[in-house]
Amino acid sequence: MNQEKIISTVKRDYLVDLAEEEKRIDDREMDEYREIDIEKSWAGNAEGSAFVKLGKTQVLTGVKIESGTPYPDKPEEGVLMTNAELTPMAHATFEAGPPGEEATELARVVDRGIRESGMIGLDELCIESEEEVWMVHVDIHVLDHDGNLIDASALSSVAALLSTEPPEDEEEWELPEFPVSKKPITTTFAKIGDALVADPCLEEENIMDARFTMTTLEDESICAMQKGSSGPFTKDDFKKAREWAKVKSKELRKELKRD
Predict the structure, then answer these.
(1) How far apart are CA 113 and CA 71, in angstroms?
(2) Which residues of the chain, if any, have pLDDT below 50?
(3) Which pLDDT score is estimated for 259?
(4) CA 128 to CA 134: how far, in whole Å?
(5) Do the Cβ atoms of 163 and 194 come closer than 8 Å?
(6) Element (H, E) at 246
(7) How confident is the model at residue 258, as a pLDDT?
(8) pTM for the full model?
């Protein structure tokens, strides 16, 4: 075994022991999120945008709107397309080129939370049935990765959509405003040994056995869920995550309301 693997094993054992003692490497409570900062309308060349800092994780999301062709199975609905970009500048483990598995999963989880919540009134974005609709592009750019990209990206995307204004140079746009209503909040929890932690930092993600994400609405109902990694979640783990999500989603939703 080389020295790097020895250090990795020692660090993992240390973090697992900490978690099972209900302690964390950055001294947070088990259900505590890192400091959050949200700046809406951050980019001037997009219909909507938001910059989010979750601890040292930094994400910028931009929203662009253009006309296009609807999906054949939904000829009278607008189109939501979510993309995530992970570049080597954000973390050494990311590679340049087409989206990899991690970027694809990130985009899908964020997209599912927005779509299943009914946040965007896609039925209002039809210009001409079967011919032309408005397409909403949500582009996630990870600037610095220090864990929990899912929650940071989801929060940035929701904030960007809430700040979205109708496109100024589109003559066909007839709606008085961009149709958004609900505020879905995504919360992620990691299983480390027998312990559960909220908002895992990168060091905790590197040694976690499993990850569980849920997206909830204002009435505390769940609209989307996603499990990551191969480790198991028990029924008690799910119950604890569910209760934490109710509390944490309210806290995160308050952050969205701040100017």
Answers:
(1) 20
(2) 1-5
(3) 55
(4) 10
(5) no
(6) helix 235-257
(7) 65
(8) 0.94
Alpha helices in 118-168 (DSSP H): 149-162
What CATH homologous superfamily does 26-257 map to?
GHMP Kinase, N-terminal domain (3.30.230.70)
Cβ-based neighbours of 117, under 8 Å, separated by 6 or more: 182, 184, 215, 217, 223, 224
Q: Is 211 left (phi over 0), alpha (psi -120 to 50) or beta?
A: beta
Are residues 115 and 80 in contact, defined by beta-carbon separation less than 8 angstroms? yes
Q: At what angle do helices 149-162 and 235-257 cross, to 10 degrees?
A: 40
Closest alpha carbon to 41 in 58, 57, 26, 61: 61
User: What is the DSSP-derived secondary structure letter of residue 146?
Assistant: S
Q: What is the CA 11 to chain-centroid distance, rounded?
A: 28
Q: Helix, strand, or coil here: 174?
A: coil
Q: Domain map of the chain by residue range?
A: 26-257
